[in-house]
Amino acid sequence: MARRIKIFDTTLRDGEQSPGCSMNLKDKLDVAESLALLGVDIIEAGFAICSPGDFQSVQAISRQVRGVTVASLARATEKDIDAAWDAVRDAENPRIHIFLATSPIHMEYKLKKTPDQVFEIAKTMAAYARNKCGDIEFSLEDASRSDPAFMYRIIEAVINAGASTINIPDTVGYAEPEEFAGIIRGIKENVPNIDRAVISVHCHNDLGLAVANSLAAVRAGADQVECTINGLGERAGNTSLEEVVMNLHTRKDYFDVVTGIDTTKIYQTSKKVSKATGVRCQPNKAVVGENAFAHESGIHQHGVLANRATYEIMTPESIGLPHNKMVLGKHSGRHALEERLSYLGYQVSEDQLNRIFTDFKDLADKKKTVSDRDIEALVSGAHGGIPEYYKLDRFVINSGSSITSTAIVRLKVKDGSLVEKVAIGDGPIDASLNAVDKIIGGSEIKLEDFSLQIVDAVDTGADAQGETYMRITRDGRTWNGNGVSTDVVESGIKAYLSAINAMTYELEGAEKI
Ligand code: KIV
Ligand code: ZN
């Protein structure tokens, strides 16, 4: 029987901890639910001691998300382990994930400890954590630059102290595949009690080898891979979940292993993470990039039409990208939209469906046909279950190359009132956002990031929609928003309002999650 590889997802910890990827609590819960549906075995929900916000999200995920193990990261100290345990104790399957550096450079300059001191801390803290929680993972930070003999000693000791998963990180993305596989083989051959633990790997992508190193480790006997959706993570990112899983799946003949991942949920989960973080994938990203299944050259198109396998090693359907020719338009009803949403893998609440349906009708008035890609954009514009404290009612722009842009924006406020303001700005979007700021009193809000993408892979460019992502900050906290419209200025205003609604929701806490 094929060996089962566990997928440990750290999008919400290593992914989220990288600059520009922060998510709010609502988005984290939403992503965690999607990861559980995707079939990951372990969700690393955060680093509980890191901040009250991190603690709260690890605890909320532990209490809400079922069918998976929920882990919190902890340094090898009692304080960290206590916080991690308090945050995960209500999970169906809680795990404490302790890490401690074992490389000479980290021990000397970061920890300022001798190898013997590190050995003692590792052993004591693994035992301390095991007294609280039945599932302990121990990571040897910077393992790929550590002395193998020292690692064997520590691994044997922490397994004896109660660790049941040993994680070998290539923390700085330094290892080469054959070399990394050799580290795993060395551990299997030299640690006498290794059969009592699962060997895990955790790779970073500094040299573009995170996926290759993880796969080489699987071939060498690792049974758990740590990864993130879209390869998010520190610096150049972590091992990309979708790439590792689709390698194992597409080349089962080579790896002869299985995972618990439902690959048809990959595309949707990738989209959800892009939306929650505001970080899009590059178009040529393997598996989930916009062009991953696009055949541009005539020769390739000809081949694919004759037999898809000529140029497609995996089908778009296998990652949940359906090729569906049935089109929706302005005569389509709510039921047809609901069916299409569920076909595309979206489970939406009644409230979200109402909102998406209203936007769908607006869009169908402007476009002849509404494609699956349009519908995905509408879903991502619906912004979870966050109430619309402010909704765009109408706007008028006066702009050009030789005049100062002016915008008149009218918003519908949650109490039903309409408020209109006029503002000038550096271009039509800037003027519009300034008008919004005047309405909501948003002078302390800073726009951190802004990106616009034209969406429509199916129809001609003439019918395309603009999809805008924005990130705003206030008092050091961050919120993301996105907006979709056939008008790019409107998509910008909607994105800004979506981030403002997320901020208001969190700061006012008016509705419970
Ligand atoms: O990269 C790393 O070493 C880590 C550990 C905390 C597992 O993220
Ligand atoms: Zn890492």
Quick take:
This protein has 513 residues and is of the alpha/beta class. The chain has 18 helices and 16 strands.
Structure, explained:
With 513 residues, this protein is an alpha/beta fold. The chain is built from 18 helices and 16 strands. It has helices spanning 11-15, 25-38, 52-64, 78-88, 104-111, 115-130, 148-161, 177-190, 210-220, 241-250, 252-255, 266-277, 298-306, 334-343, 350-366, 372-381, 428-440, 488-508; strands at residues 3-4, 6-9, 42-46, 69-75, 93-101, 136-141, 165-170, 198-203, 224-227, 257-258, 390-400, 403-413, 418-425, 446-455, 465-474, 477-485. It starts with a strand and ends in a 5-residue tail after the last helix. 49% of the residues are buried. Bound molecules: 3-methyl-2-oxobutanoic acid and zinc ion.
Helix count from the secondary structure assignment: 18
C-alpha-based Rg, rounded: 25 Å
Quote the average pLDDT.
Answer: 91
Strand content: 15-25%
CATH superfamily of the largest domain, called what? Aldolase class I
Give the class from helix and strand content and strand pairing: alpha/beta
User: What's the total number of strands?
Assistant: 16
Strand order of the largest sheet: 2-3-4-5-6-7-8-9
Q: Give the biggest sheet.
A: 8 strands, parallel, barrel
- Do you know the CATH topology of the largest domain? TIM Barrel
- Helical content, roughly? 40-55%
Shape: globular
Task: Detail the poorly predicted runs.
Answer: none
CATH architecture of the largest domain: Alpha-Beta Barrel
- Cα(first) to Cα(last) distance is 43 Å
Number of domains: 3
Q: Give the cofactors and ligands.
A: 3-methyl-2-oxobutanoic acid, zinc ion
Assign the CATH class of the largest domain.
Alpha Beta
